[in-house]
Amino acid sequence: DVNTDLDSFKSVLYSYNLETNEWIIPTTNGIAPGRRREINGVINNKTGKFYVFGGLSDFTGAENTIALNDMNIFDTISLTWSKGASIYAPLPRTDYTATLLYNGIIVFVGGRETNNFVDVDINQVNKLNIHTTSYRN
Q1: Which of 10, 16, 64, 133 is deepest in the core (most CB within 10 A)?
Q2: pTM of the model
Q3: What is the pLDDT of residues 102-115, one digit of tens each?
Q4: In which element (H, E) is residue 81 found?
Q5: In this structure, what is the dihedral angle of CA atoms 23, 29, 31, 37, given to the nearest 10 degrees?
Q6: Using one digit for the tens of pLDDT, what is the confidence trace for 83-98?
Q7: CA distances from 4 to 1, 11, 12 (A)
Q8: Rounded distance, CA 136 to CA 88, Å?
Q9: 91 closest CA partner among 110, 111, 68
Q10: Cβ atoms of residues 71 and 86 within 8 Å
Q11: Which domain of life does the protein's organism represent (predicted)?
């Protein structure tokens, strides 16, 4: 809050009601991920599942910045959070692009890896199969 210099963050998820023009914090199931930034997500329109990988676990101005490499999945139909597989996951990454292909593969390109924020070679492509939630290069 720029007026009080206090952190007024309440949720990682907000919903906008088009009829009332109001923002609400929906009640969700599962364990919601911690606050993130410098992330990119994709949604599977067939299943209503939203996938978001890694990011930074802090907020602007925090002293400790930690890059993450976990996959968080939000089911927009049941409002349930879950975790994807972590075996063979890319190194912790931020500022990447994520694209969901027609065959159910999410392609991650570019960004910055690890807590040293090394640029990722654009030729290095990581993939996640959303049907098996397994990674491959």
Answers
A1: 133
A2: 0.84
A3: 999 999 999 998 76
A4: strand 80-83
A5: -30
A6: 988 888 888 999 999 9
A7: 6, 19, 21
A8: 7
A9: 68
A10: yes
A11: Eukaryota
